Amino acid sequence: MAGLWRSLGDLLYPPRCLMCEADLRLLRPDLLFCPGCRDELESDAESRCQRCATRTNWSTSQGCAACSGSRLAFAGVVTLGDYQGLLRDAVLKMKYAQEEPLTLAMAELLWRTHAEQIVGWKCDLVVPVPMHWWRRLRRGTNNPDLLAGRLARRLGATCLPGAVRRRRATRPQSSIPADQRSRNVRGAFRLAAGYELTGARALVVDDVLTTGATCNEVARVLRAAGVASVHVAVVARAHGQPK
Ligand SMILES: [Zn+2]
Ligand SMILES: [Zn+2]
Question: Candidates 3.40.50.2020, 3.30.9.10, 3.30.590.10, 3.90.180.10; correct CATH number of 49-237?
Fold first, then answer.
């Protein structure tokens, strides 16, 4: 029993940094990471496109080279930063079932960094990008669900992990060329029966956004179901590198 209480306490206030295992017990008790790791995970100073979160040099371009001219079913994206360095290490580590505290901590970091913007979107629903059941089973954890649940709690919104379902497994987006990714996920999702979402505002949550094809397809299903607006929150923004 004592062991159980200790592990509950450790889940709320990990005694060690979730990335480098530095001892946190002598620091403030509400830290999730040591100051060094936290600075690196939160250090996103890049100016980003509000719509697709690509790094953008506004001084030299008329608009975002990545998304201007493309039709997106979502209206905006927040992220902790590019999929590189310690943020990439954290996303890779999150894939293991025993790292669920890290996944929750990353959701917390995303919230602390972008709360104002997310609140401004006035979302009433939070929808994780659905994992195929086979991948979920094999991995033993479901990061989009964990991230979405934590963000919904912070936002005071309803998390609907079952609203959008996968019709079929898709090849991992990272394994195919960028220009074929929207075809790979086209029609891969559907709205589950019994959901009435007309007029709702949704936040779609995933761990990484690369071309945006997957989030876009989920957003398309939601918009077709009458959802008024869709925004996206992801831990990291990749730019076509292998995952
Ligand atoms: Zn650390
Ligand atoms: Zn853009």
Answer: 3.40.50.2020
